[in-house]
Amino acid sequence: MRDEQRLPTRTPESRAFAERVQVAMGLCARLNALPFDDLEGRRVLLGEIFGGPVPDSLSILPPFHSDYGLGATFGERVFINQGCYFLDLGGITLGDRVMIGPGVTLSTAGHPVELRERYDFITHAPITIEDDVWIGAGATVTPGVTIGRGSVVGAGSVVARDVPPMSVVTGTSVVERKRIGSAG
Protein backbone atom coordinates (compact mmCIF):
# COMPACT_ATOMS: atom_id res chain seq x y z
CA MET A 1 0.00 0.00 0.00
CA ARG A 2 1.52 3.33 -1.06
CA ASP A 3 1.98 5.95 1.68
CA GLU A 4 1.01 3.37 4.30
CA GLN A 5 1.11 4.45 7.91
CA ARG A 6 0.60 2.25 10.95
CA LEU A 7 -1.39 2.83 14.08
CA PRO A 8 -0.20 0.44 16.81
CA THR A 9 -3.02 -1.34 18.63
CA ARG A 10 -3.37 -1.30 22.42
CA THR A 11 -2.05 2.28 22.70
CA PRO A 12 -3.66 5.55 23.80
CA GLU A 13 -3.83 6.58 20.12
CA SER A 14 -5.65 3.41 19.09
CA ARG A 15 -8.03 3.78 22.05
CA ALA A 16 -8.78 7.37 20.95
CA PHE A 17 -9.46 6.07 17.43
CA ALA A 18 -11.80 3.37 18.81
CA GLU A 19 -13.66 5.98 20.86
CA ARG A 20 -14.08 8.19 17.78
CA VAL A 21 -15.40 5.17 15.84
CA GLN A 22 -18.13 4.78 18.47
CA VAL A 23 -19.05 8.47 18.15
CA ALA A 24 -19.07 8.41 14.34
CA MET A 25 -21.14 5.24 14.17
CA GLY A 26 -23.67 6.68 16.62
CA LEU A 27 -23.93 9.87 14.56
CA CYS A 28 -24.37 7.83 11.37
CA ALA A 29 -27.16 5.81 13.02
CA ARG A 30 -28.91 9.07 13.92
CA LEU A 31 -28.41 10.37 10.37
CA ASN A 32 -29.87 7.21 8.87
CA ALA A 33 -32.92 7.38 11.16
CA LEU A 34 -33.90 10.91 10.09
CA PRO A 35 -36.91 11.42 7.84
CA PHE A 36 -35.60 11.64 4.28
CA ASP A 37 -36.90 15.19 3.83
CA ASP A 38 -35.16 16.55 6.97
CA LEU A 39 -32.40 18.24 4.99
CA GLU A 40 -31.41 20.63 7.79
CA GLY A 41 -31.12 17.79 10.31
CA ARG A 42 -29.01 15.87 7.81
CA ARG A 43 -26.71 18.88 7.29
CA VAL A 44 -26.22 19.31 11.06
CA LEU A 45 -25.38 15.62 11.57
CA LEU A 46 -23.00 15.59 8.58
CA GLY A 47 -21.15 18.50 10.18
CA GLU A 48 -20.83 16.49 13.39
CA ILE A 49 -19.74 13.33 11.58
CA PHE A 50 -17.08 15.18 9.57
CA GLY A 51 -15.97 17.47 12.39
CA GLY A 52 -17.07 20.78 10.89
CA PRO A 53 -19.12 22.47 8.20
CA VAL A 54 -19.52 20.70 4.88
CA PRO A 55 -20.14 22.49 1.56
CA ASP A 56 -23.77 23.49 1.04
CA SER A 57 -23.60 21.76 -2.34
CA LEU A 58 -22.67 18.38 -0.78
CA SER A 59 -25.41 15.77 -1.21
CA ILE A 60 -25.22 12.50 0.74
CA LEU A 61 -28.24 10.20 0.54
CA PRO A 62 -28.79 7.95 3.54
CA PRO A 63 -28.12 5.34 4.58
CA PHE A 64 -24.49 6.43 4.89
CA HIS A 65 -21.78 4.95 7.09
CA SER A 66 -18.46 6.37 8.27
CA ASP A 67 -16.16 4.78 10.81
CA TYR A 68 -14.17 7.91 11.67
CA GLY A 69 -15.47 11.00 9.88
CA LEU A 70 -12.63 13.33 10.73
CA GLY A 71 -10.55 12.21 7.74
CA ALA A 72 -12.94 13.15 4.91
CA THR A 73 -12.95 16.39 2.93
CA PHE A 74 -15.28 17.41 0.11
CA GLY A 75 -15.14 19.69 -2.89
CA GLU A 76 -18.14 21.49 -4.35
CA ARG A 77 -21.16 19.72 -5.88
CA VAL A 78 -20.22 16.25 -4.60
CA PHE A 79 -23.01 13.65 -4.82
CA ILE A 80 -22.90 10.43 -2.76
CA ASN A 81 -25.73 7.97 -3.35
CA GLN A 82 -27.32 5.57 -0.84
CA GLY A 83 -25.57 2.82 1.08
CA CYS A 84 -21.98 4.07 0.89
CA TYR A 85 -19.23 3.27 3.39
CA PHE A 86 -16.33 5.63 4.13
CA LEU A 87 -13.55 4.13 6.27
CA ASP A 88 -11.59 7.35 6.42
CA LEU A 89 -8.87 7.05 9.08
CA GLY A 90 -6.23 7.47 6.36
CA GLY A 91 -8.00 10.43 4.77
CA ILE A 92 -10.47 10.67 1.91
CA THR A 93 -10.34 13.70 -0.37
CA LEU A 94 -13.14 14.18 -2.89
CA GLY A 95 -12.66 16.88 -5.53
CA ASP A 96 -15.32 19.04 -7.14
CA ARG A 97 -18.27 17.43 -8.96
CA VAL A 98 -17.45 13.88 -7.84
CA MET A 99 -20.38 11.46 -8.23
CA ILE A 100 -20.43 8.27 -6.18
CA GLY A 101 -22.97 5.56 -6.95
CA PRO A 102 -24.93 3.48 -4.44
CA GLY A 103 -23.12 0.92 -2.31
CA VAL A 104 -19.61 2.25 -2.91
CA THR A 105 -16.91 1.57 -0.29
CA LEU A 106 -13.92 3.87 0.15
CA SER A 107 -11.60 2.08 2.58
CA THR A 108 -8.40 3.76 3.73
CA ALA A 109 -7.60 1.26 6.50
CA GLY A 110 -6.64 -2.36 6.92
CA HIS A 111 -4.13 -4.57 8.70
CA PRO A 112 -0.62 -5.78 7.85
CA VAL A 113 -0.45 -8.80 5.59
CA GLU A 114 2.12 -10.64 7.68
CA LEU A 115 0.34 -12.84 10.23
CA ARG A 116 2.76 -12.02 13.06
CA GLU A 117 1.90 -8.28 12.68
CA ARG A 118 -1.78 -8.51 11.73
CA TYR A 119 -3.23 -7.87 15.18
CA ASP A 120 -0.63 -5.34 16.28
CA PHE A 121 -1.36 -2.53 13.81
CA ILE A 122 -4.05 -0.80 11.82
CA THR A 123 -2.61 0.27 8.49
CA HIS A 124 -3.95 3.28 6.63
CA ALA A 125 -3.24 5.38 3.55
CA PRO A 126 -5.19 8.20 1.89
CA ILE A 127 -7.62 7.95 -0.99
CA THR A 128 -7.76 10.91 -3.36
CA ILE A 129 -10.55 11.26 -5.89
CA GLU A 130 -9.89 14.20 -8.17
CA ASP A 131 -12.42 16.55 -9.84
CA ASP A 132 -15.18 15.23 -12.11
CA VAL A 133 -14.78 11.53 -11.25
CA TRP A 134 -17.76 9.17 -11.42
CA ILE A 135 -17.64 5.95 -9.38
CA GLY A 136 -20.27 3.35 -10.32
CA ALA A 137 -22.49 1.36 -8.00
CA GLY A 138 -20.88 -1.17 -5.69
CA ALA A 139 -17.27 -0.24 -6.47
CA THR A 140 -14.56 -0.53 -3.82
CA VAL A 141 -11.53 1.77 -3.61
CA THR A 142 -8.63 0.52 -1.49
CA PRO A 143 -6.07 2.41 0.63
CA GLY A 144 -3.48 4.62 -1.06
CA VAL A 145 -5.32 5.01 -4.38
CA THR A 146 -5.65 8.21 -6.42
CA ILE A 147 -8.33 8.36 -9.10
CA GLY A 148 -7.40 10.98 -11.68
CA ARG A 149 -9.54 13.86 -12.88
CA GLY A 150 -12.46 13.03 -15.14
CA SER A 151 -12.17 9.26 -14.81
CA VAL A 152 -14.98 6.71 -14.54
CA VAL A 153 -14.86 3.61 -12.35
CA GLY A 154 -17.32 0.98 -13.56
CA ALA A 155 -19.93 -0.58 -11.29
CA GLY A 156 -18.61 -3.37 -9.09
CA SER A 157 -14.96 -2.59 -9.78
CA VAL A 158 -12.23 -3.03 -7.19
CA VAL A 159 -9.66 -0.24 -7.53
CA ALA A 160 -6.36 -1.25 -5.93
CA ARG A 161 -4.00 0.98 -7.92
CA ASP A 162 -4.02 4.55 -9.21
CA VAL A 163 -6.27 5.45 -12.12
CA PRO A 164 -4.83 7.94 -14.62
CA PRO A 165 -6.87 11.06 -15.47
CA MET A 166 -9.59 10.73 -18.11
CA SER A 167 -9.71 6.90 -17.94
CA VAL A 168 -12.48 4.31 -17.73
CA VAL A 169 -11.66 1.32 -15.54
CA THR A 170 -13.75 -1.78 -14.83
CA GLY A 171 -13.45 -5.21 -13.35
CA THR A 172 -12.43 -7.31 -10.42
CA SER A 173 -9.82 -9.96 -10.17
CA VAL A 174 -7.93 -12.03 -7.66
CA VAL A 175 -4.22 -12.21 -8.40
CA GLU A 176 -1.77 -13.93 -6.05
CA ARG A 177 0.89 -11.30 -5.39
CA LYS A 178 3.17 -13.21 -3.02
CA ARG A 179 3.27 -15.97 -0.46
CA ILE A 180 3.35 -14.86 3.16
CA GLY A 181 5.19 -16.57 6.02
CA SER A 182 3.93 -19.78 7.54
CA ALA A 183 0.98 -19.83 9.93
CA GLY A 184 3.08 -21.39 12.70
Automatic annotation (TrEMBL):
The protein's superkingdom reads Bacteria
* InterPro entries listed in its UniProt record: Hexapep, Hexapep_transf_CS, Hexapeptide_acetyltransf, Trimer_LpxA-like_sf
* Annotated keywords: Repeat, Transferase
One term of GO molecular function: transferase activity
Extract the Pfam families matched here: Hexapep, Hexapep_2
Please report which protein family the annotation says this sequence is part of: Belongs to the transferase hexapeptide repeat family.
Q: Per its record, how is this protein called by name?
A: Transferase
